Amino acid sequence: MKIKLARAAKMGGLLFALLAAIGLVVTSLPVISRGERNAFATTLQPASVKDSALIEQAYAYLPQKTQFDAFVALKDGRQLAQWGEADLPINTHSVRKSLLSGLYGIAIARGYIRLDQTLGELAIDDKVKPLTALEKSATVRDLLMSRSGIYIEAAGEAQGMKEGRPRRGSHRPGEFFYYNNWDFNVLGVIFERRTGLSIGQAFYEWIAKPTGMTTFKPGHVIYDQPGYTEHRQFVIFMSAADLARFGMLYANNGAWNGHQVIPEAWIRESTQPYSDIHDMPPFDAYGYLWWLDRRNHVVWADGWGGQFMIVDARHHLVVVARNDTGRSLLQMGLFAAFGKDGWRSHLQTLHGMMVGASD
To answer: Which residue ranges does the record assign to the Beta-lactamase-related domain (predicted)?
Structure first.
């Protein structure tokens, strides 16, 4: 009897510990609400559609061939097609990097930051793993190209990034491309220190308001601060509809309704190929926080879990497909285990349909 009671107590303790751990995971992270419509939100007019049959095929293709939660296509700043929960704020995952690239273009034009500034000049170090003098010579441009040469553990790294991280000190700043969360996270730190604004505040004022975004709020940018690095990761939640408006800026030389939001020169510079990519089709190059597909003359923002955006400047077209991966670590774990399908090739197919429907 005593043995049974001891086993029951042990099982009860394990269950309590498990529930406590789950509660900690769920409650320790900020909750991103579905959000109310912004007071400055604008409604997009429908784009002219050449072939309505292609749009109907796209709607039929979405639920049958993919499991995206939301899809949006804009043509010349007008709505071409929309499906699913387009106004739901969703974790952008690595799409956050392309969003930050747009903010950098504005910050540089306003004189807050220079591309040639070094980490040493900007007083950037890492208290947990101090940088060497050579590492401190890396510039803002090196970080934007993901060529810092700084190979230490960073917040938000996927397993593949950890496994592919070069040996520390193996490459000088600027000479080698490695998709590096340390670079991306520190760019967020630099931006906030130099501008005096949070990423959420800056995006809200500089981009969301001018483009009439529907739901984005400053509080939709949250932070992850692990103990193994000084520099926290910024995490951006944004709806498919708002992300498409951001992409439209890049399809239209940085302008929205005749207002220059992001400098035209930055749009060109940030989407130039600075590194060749050989193992991530359809991507064949990397710019300043943007993936390039030069064969098809488009650029991509790309994130874990099916966060995709194609910007097609030739056709003044943006297509966005999103999956909701959740609002906590527990939800993201469940998505990873049981999540929906949705591949880059699916969005490429939908992009082709949208081109055909809008030409």
So the answer is: 75-320
Q: Where are the extended beta strands (E) located within the chain?
A: 70-75, 78-84, 90-91, 221-224, 233-238, 255-256, 259-260, 275-280, 283-286, 291-293, 298-303, 307-312, 317-322
Q: Cα angle vertex 317, ends 314, 318, to 5°?
A: 130
State the DSSP H helix or E strand holding residue 164, giving kind and residue range, or none if neither: helix 159-164
Beta bridge partners of 280: 283
CB atoms within 10 A of CB 113: 20
Which pTM does this prediction carry? 0.90
The three-class DSSP label of residue 269 is helix
Residue 32 one-letter amino acid: I
Give burial (CB, 10 Å; 0-12/13-18/19+) of 5. exposed
Helix axes 329-338, 2-27, angle to 10 degrees: 100
Decide: helix, strand or coil at residue 221: strand
Q: What is the pLDDT of residues 115-152, one digit of tens each?
A: 999 999 999 999 999 999 999 999 999 999 999 999 99
Q: Please name the residues in contact with 27: beta carbons below 8 A apart, sequence gap of 6 or more.
A: none
CA-to-CA distance for 209 and 219, rounded, in angstroms?
A: 15
- One-letter amino acid at 147 equals R
Structure tokens at 54: 């292609």
Q: What is the set of domains in the chain, with CATH numbers? A: 52-358 (3.40.710.10)
Q: Give the list of residues 6+ apart from residue 249 with CB closer than 8 angstroms, or none.
A: 102, 207, 211, 255, 256, 261, 262, 267
